[in-house]
Amino acid sequence: MSRPPTAALSARDLVKTYPAGQSRRGAEPVCALDGLSIEAEPGSVLALLGPNGAGKSTTVKILTTLSRPDSGSAVVGGVDVLRSPGAARRVIGLVSQKSSADPMGTGLENLVLAARIQGLSRTDARARADQLLDRFGLTSAAGRLTKTYSGGMARKLDVAIGLVHRPQVLFLDEPTTGLDPEARSQLWAEIAHLAADEQMTVLLTTHYLDEADQLADRLVIVDGGRVVVEGTPEQLKNELRGDAVNVELDPAAPADVAVRVLAGVGGLQEVAADGTRLRARADSGARAVPAVLAALDAAGVAVASVTVARPSLDDVYLRHAGRAYAATTSAGTEVAA
C-alpha cells in the first residue's frame, strides 16, 4: 500500500489580528485570520477564493514569510516558515498583485538581477534569463524597458521572475486581473503546465470563478478569516443537488412580488433576488420552468428571460458564503455579482 504524498504546503490554525487604526480611537482590533487551515499536495493547484477582507492576502503573506501569525504553524516545501524563513524563501516563488519588475530596467536585466539575488552565478543567471524569455515569448522584447511592456507582457515577466530559481511552491496572487482574454488564456496554459508537467505546487488567489474552475485541483473558500468549504470544483458543484433556475425580470417588474410568488411554486427552493435577477434551485429545472412562468404571469410580473443551468462555483459560493461572488471587470474593478 503506497503512502499518501507529503503536503507541499500546510498551514494549521493560523490566527492573525491587526490593531485598530489610530484614527479610529476605541475601535476593536481586526481579526484577519481566525484559525485558518489549508493544505496542498505536490504538483497540484490550490485556489483560494473569498471576498476582499476574507484573509486571502494575509494567508499568502504568512506562507511567504512576509508576515508572522499570532499563533498557528506553516510549512512550505518541507520548511517551517516561522522557524526558518530564510530557507523557506529559497523554495518558494511569489508573484504578487503589484509588479516586482523595475520599470526602468529591461526584461533581461530584471531577470538576471532576480537570478543573481537568488544566488545564481553571472553565467547561470544569464542562461536562466534567456531560457525564461524564450519560454514566455519575450525574447524580442528582452532589451526593452519594462515600462513599455503591455499588461500581458509585464505579467509574463512577473511570473518568469517568480520562477527564476525553480521554486517548489509558487504563489500567484490574482495573476490575471486586468489581462485581455488572450493573455489570460496564455497564463492559464502556463500555470497548468507548471503543475502537471513540472510537478510544481501552485497556490492561486483569484477573483475569477472560471479561472478556479479551470485550473484548481482543489479550492478553498475563505470568509471571515476561516475556511467555509473546500474540495475539488466538481465535488463542490455536485454537492448542490438539482439545477439552478435564473429568472431575469423586466426592469419595471417588482422583484419583491416575484420572490413571494416563486416561494409558493412547488419544487423550488432557495429563492433569492439580486436586483432584477432571481435565483432558485429545483430538482428538475426543465419541469420547474413552466410553473415559474405561469405563476409570474398570473401575478402580472413581466419576465425577460429564464435559464436553467447545472450548479456552478458561483452557486457553491452563494450557498456557503451567503452571497454571490464578486466579479472582476477587465479593468480590475470589483463589482457586486
Features:
337 residues, alpha/beta, Rossmann fold, Alpha-Beta Plaits, four-stranded antiparallel β-sheet, 16 strands, 33% helix, elongated
Q: What is CATH's topology name of the largest domain?
A: Rossmann fold
Assess the beta-strand content as a share of residues. Answer: 25-35%
DSSP helical segment count: 11
Report, as a whole number of angstroms, the end-to-end distance.
46 Å
Instruction: Please state the average pLDDT score.
Output: 88
* Coarse morphology: elongated
Beta-strand segment tally = 16
CATH superfamily of the largest domain: P-loop containing nucleotide triphosphate hydrolases
From the helix content, strand content and strand pairing, which structural class follows?
A: alpha/beta
Name the strands of the widest sheet in spatial order: 6-7-8-3-9-10
Rg (CA only)? 23 Å
In total, how many domains does the architecture comprise? 2
Please, what is the oligomeric state?
Answer: single chain
Characterize the biggest β-sheet: 6 strands, mixed
Runs in which pLDDT lies below 50 for 5 or more consecutive residues are: 327-337
User: What is the helix fraction of residues, given as a range?
Assistant: 25-40%
The CATH level-2 architecture of the largest domain is identified as 3-Layer(aba) Sandwich
